[in-house]
């Protein structure tokens, strides 16, 4: 018999019983053992593979199952609530709560001073010819677009004016830089397309345009009278002299520097550079829109170069608090927020156009800042940390300086300035409390939500400006443009991690302001309608000379 040679197969050593195969029913003969080849010393001996098959009859188990083991897992919070990790001083928080309560209480008191009356009867259709109504609608729409009014509000107001003047089938299409108005005329339609949005308006002009729009909807004035008032408002001279406008811009820079945590050196630099930028703006007022980009780029380059030069020589500056305030007039905070409102109200074309324009403005400013930093040799990454020399009251002083400066520099009427200050103070108080409860990003929502009912109720006062006049400084105060500028500058400075975070923060801030305004309008609109139906003559003590007729004389 010839032996069969079996090639040994290395297998790991296994300790335990053999595993039966459930498919075989009979024993298998054991294989014939073979002689193992010799191996050198120190070499592991391979083990041949042996398979043994047996038949096993399973019997019920009599063992008792072990008790299950219960494991308790403790869930820990990854991030602490915003209120527990907030670094806001308690003095600032308590003062913000007090200011917000007082501001809202004053709003309720103002609202209760009028006794609501039933709504007036529907207006009688106007006998103005179609051509005269068409010209008035075009002029009014252009003025509202120049005032940065959201496209949805422009469409709604113009359609209402057309309806009460006997043209309910009018069609309005408004864009940031164009306006299309179509009125039916017998069996045909007259359509006019004009450019718009190219002329920035002062606050007194914005107020005049929006007052005409409101009174035209209520049929207080006819289209002819509205056209005359619009022409006079748009041709009105500056309400304040040059020196007061420059002082106002310096006050705006100082206030924003305090809000950004600047110290005495930052405050001094912001004021001096603010005066220089204000004078430069006066010298370039005749520049066409094609050169406006160069003005913004040049201002950003000059301001950043000076600030970084001072920082390099050893001045203890916080670049954000010294650099951003002088450039506040170029920050597209209101433009970006209006873009977010347009997008939220399904005005996609207008919102996208304004968003692109605001983004381009930020890129121009960031390019100028980065060029200045490259010239001096200082990185263009901005820091927001700083300690105010005045302590907990610095932000409130900053808000007051900011509001007063906005009124002087942007030509607000004398009777409107105190209402603008009220709205700004309430907006900042809401932002502080929102930052304590929800964190910094959502704080803008609370600020916008708090200021919107106040601005809406203020607009019903005889000397109160339309809500848009109060909203614009509020948008500038909430500073979405400053956040976007920091983010874009970080991108150009190759600080990508910080840049993306700041850009996202700026975008969320804009959306938060937009949502706060929309929610505030939804809450306050029914109240405003009741107040507008009340007699205005009951509030005689609030009337100031010159407040209802236009801006006050220069220097007042």
Features:
single chain, 556 residues, 2 domains, globular, disordered N terminus, disordered C terminus
Structure description:
By secondary structure, the chain is mainly alpha-helical. The protein has 2 domains: 333 residues, no CATH class; 105 residues. Helices cover 56% and strands 4% of the residues. The chain is built from 18 helices and 3 strands. The chain has a 3-stranded antiparallel sheet. α7 packs antiparallel against α8. The chain is globular. It starts with 81 loop residues before the first helix and ends in a 24-residue tail after the last helix. 42% of the residues are buried. The N terminus and C terminus are likely disordered.
Overall domain count: 2
Strand content is under 5%
Helical element count? 18
SSE succession: HHHHEEEHHHHHHHHHHHHHH
Could you give the count of β-strands? Answer: 3
CA radius of gyration: 36 Å
Task: Provide the structure class.
Answer: mainly alpha
Strand order of the largest sheet: 1-2-3
Uncertain residue ranges: 1-59, 115-126, 535-556
Q: Report the major sheet.
A: 3 strands, antiparallel
- The mean pLDDT is 76
What is the share of helical residues? 55-70%
Shape: globular
In whole angstroms, the N-to-C terminal distance is: 129 Å
């Amino acid at each position: 018999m010839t032996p069969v040679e079996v090639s040994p197969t290395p297998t790991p050593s296994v300790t335990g019983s053999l595993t039966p195969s459930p498919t075989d029913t009979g024993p298998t003969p054991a294989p014939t053992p073979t002689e193992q080849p010799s191996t050198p010393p120190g070499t592991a001996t391979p083990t041949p593979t042996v398979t043994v098959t047996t038949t096993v009859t399973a019997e019920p188990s009599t063992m008792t199952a072990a008790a299950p083991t219960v494991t308790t897992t403790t869930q820990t919070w990854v991030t602490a609530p915003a209120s527990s990790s907030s670094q806001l001083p308690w003095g600032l928080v308590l003062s913000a709560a007090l200011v917000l309560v007082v501001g809202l209480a004053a709003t309720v008191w103002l609202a209760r001073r009028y006794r609501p009356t039933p709504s007036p009867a529907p207006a009688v259709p106007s006998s103005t010819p179609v051509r005269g109504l068409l010209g008035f609608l075009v002029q009014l729409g252009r003025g509202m677009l120049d005032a940065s009014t959201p496209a949805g509000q422009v469409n709604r107001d113009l359609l209402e004016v057309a309806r009460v003047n006997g043209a309910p089938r009018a069609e309005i299409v408004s864009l940031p830089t164009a306006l299309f108005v179509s009125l039916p005329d017998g069996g045909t339609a007259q359509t006019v397309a004009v450019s718009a949005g190219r002329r920035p308006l002062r606050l007194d002009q914005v107020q005049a345009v929006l007052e005409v729009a409101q009174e035209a909807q209520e049929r207080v004035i006819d289209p002819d009278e509205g056209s005359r008032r619009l022409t006079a408002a748009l041709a009105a001279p500056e309400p304040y002299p040059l020196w007061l406008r420059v002082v106002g811009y310096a006050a705006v820079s100082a206030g924003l520097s305090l809000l950004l945590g600047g110290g005495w050196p930052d405050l001094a630099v912001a004021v001096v550079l603010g005066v220089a930028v204000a004078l430069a703006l006066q010298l370039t007022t005749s520049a066409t829109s094609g050169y406006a980009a160069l003005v913004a780029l040049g201002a950003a380059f000059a301001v950043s170069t000076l600030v970084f030069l001072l920082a390099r020589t050893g001045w203890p500056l916080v670049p954000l608090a010294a650099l951003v305030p002088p450039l506040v007039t170029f920050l597209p905070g209101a433009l970006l927020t209006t873009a977010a409102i347009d997008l939220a109200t399904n005005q996609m074309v207008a919102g996208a156009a304004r968003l692109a324009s605001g983004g381009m403005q930020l890129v121009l400013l960031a390019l100028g800042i980065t060029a200045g930093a490259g010239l001096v040799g200082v990185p263009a990454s901005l820091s927001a940390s700083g300690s105010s020399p005045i302590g907990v009251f610095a932000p409130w002083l900053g808000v007051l300086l900011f509001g007063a400066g906005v009124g002087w520099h942007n030509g607000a009427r004398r009777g409107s300035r105190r209402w603008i200050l009220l709205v700004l103070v309430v907006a900042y108080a809401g932002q502080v409390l929102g930052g304590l409860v929800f964190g910094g990003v959502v704080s803008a929502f609370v600020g916008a939500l708090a200021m919107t009912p106040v601005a809406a109720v203020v607009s019903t006062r005889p000397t109160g400006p339309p809500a848009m006049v109060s909203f614009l400084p509020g948008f500038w105060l909430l500073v979405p443009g400053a956040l976007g500028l920091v983010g874009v500058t970080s991108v150009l400075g190759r600080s990508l991690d910080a840049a993306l975070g700041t850009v996202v923060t700026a975008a969320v801030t804009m959306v938060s302001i937009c949502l706060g305004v929309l929610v505030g309008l939804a809450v306050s609109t029914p109240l405003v309608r009741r107040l507008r139906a009340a007699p205005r003559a009951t509030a005689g003590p609030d009337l100031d000379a010159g407040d209802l007729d236009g801006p006050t004389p220069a220097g007042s």
